[in-house]
């Protein structure tokens, strides 16, 4: 079945550092790819998505580019802030067959120190 | 932005009892989902629901689980009887349509089965 593998565990950075969280996927079809962010005590929030090869998604200074050849959708941000501390989920949805069940990675906890 | 409300935020019950988790989805959304997240693990798809019917369910959606949304009220997940392994945070989500793949999540209901 479909799966998402992302940077495991925790990423600890200082403010203004560059962020990369790796995400690789495996899918039988041509999935849409997503990033969600989850703050403590809340549910995941949609960050952005990309639906086709080489498309870039972006929001709030975060961005990722759909790479079909490498089956990747790595999250990046040029300069993180303490308020970016949260858990980030990479996800895919494969709507072939007229239905879909979005599949999430395990999540990566980002901690940004002031 | 649009909100998904989940009630209650925490439920403690004894093994073997019945529990109903309630979700008030975004008002004009048509597709509804339940996800299960055990502490420290990834969020896993349980079921999606449209037009009064289960569209797709995973292996985690055991026979003891059921979902419904009677007369446009709460979208509910019922577990009867509960088991210890059902302890987790359950997230409800909704989306506008199957073509609008962005999910809106609630804050989750933490279920503790003793």
Overall pLDDT of chain B: 92
Number of helices of chain B: 0
Helix content of chain A: under 10%
**Radius of gyration of chain A, Cα only, in angstroms?**
14 Å
Name the poorly predicted regions of chain A. none
Helix percentage of chain B: under 10%
Structure description:
The complex is a heterodimer of chains A (114) and B (114). Chain A has strands at residues 3-6, 10-14, 19-21, 23-26, 32-38, 45-50, 56-59, 62-65, 75-77, 86-93, 103-104, 108-113. With 114 residues, chain A is mainly β. Chain A is globular and about 45 Å long. The mean pLDDT of chain A is 92. Chain B is 0% helix and 50% strand. Chain B has no helices and 11 strands. In chain B, the strands form 2 sheets. In chain B, strands 2, 4, 5, 6, 9, 10 and 11 form a 7-stranded mixed β-sheet that branches. In chain B, strand 5 and strand 6 (53-57) form a beta hairpin. At the A-B interface, strand 5, strand 6 and strand 11 of A face strand 5 and strand 10 of B.
Summarize the structure.
The complex is a heterodimer of chains A (114) and B (114). By secondary structure, chain A is mainly beta. Chain A has no helices and 12 strands.
What is this structure's SSE topology?
The complex is a heterodimer of chains A (114) and B (114).
Chain A lengths: L2 E4 L3 E5 L4 E3 L1 E4 L5 E7 L6 E6 L5 E4 L2 E4 L9 E3 L8 E8 L9 E2 L3 E6 L1
Parallel strand pairs in A: 2-12
Antiparallel strand pairs in A: 1-4, 3-9, 5-6, 5-10, 7-8, 8-9, 10-11, 10-12
Chain B lengths: L4 E3 L2 E4 L5 E6 L6 E7 L5 E8 L2 E5 L7 E4 L6 E5 L8 E8 L8 E2 L3 E5 L1
Parallel strand pairs in B: 2-11
Antiparallel strand pairs in B: 1-3, 3-8, 4-5, 4-9, 5-6, 7-8, 9-10, 9-11
Q: What are the salient characteristics of this protein?
A:
heterodimer; A: 114 residues; mainly beta; six-stranded mixed sheet; four-stranded antiparallel sheet; 12 strands; 0% helix; 49% strand; B: 114 residues; seven-stranded mixed sheet; globular
């Amino acid at each position: 079945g479909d799966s998402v593998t992302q940077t495991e565990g925790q990423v600890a950075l200082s403010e203004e550092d560059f962020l990369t969280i790796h995400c690789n996927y495996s899918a039988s079809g041509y999935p849409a790819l997503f990033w969600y962010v989850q703050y403590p005590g809340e549910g995941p929030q949609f960050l952005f998505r990309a639906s086709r090869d080489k498309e870039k998604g972006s929001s709030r200074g975060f961005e990722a580019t759909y790479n079909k050849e490498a089956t990747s959708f790595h999250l990046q941000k040029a300069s993180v802030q303490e308020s970016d501390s949260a858990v980030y989920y990479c996800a895919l949805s494969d709507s072939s067959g007229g239905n879909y069940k979005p599949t999430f990675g395990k999540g990566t906890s980002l901690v940004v120190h002031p | 932005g649009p909100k998904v409300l989940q009630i209650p935020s925490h439920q403690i019950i004894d093994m073997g009892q019945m529990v109903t988790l309630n979700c008030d989805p975004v008002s004009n959304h048509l597709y509804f989902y339940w996800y299960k997240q055990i502490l420290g693990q990834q969020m896993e798809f349980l079921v999606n629901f449209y037009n009064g019917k289960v569209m797709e369910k995973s292996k985690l959606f055991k026979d003891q689980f059921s979902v419904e949304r009677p007369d446009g009220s709460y979208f509910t997940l019922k577990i009867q009887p509960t088991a210890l392994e059902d302890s987790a945070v359950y997230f409800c989500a909704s989306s506008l349509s199957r073509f609008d793949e962005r999910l809106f999540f609630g804050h989750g209901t933490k279920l503790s089965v003793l």
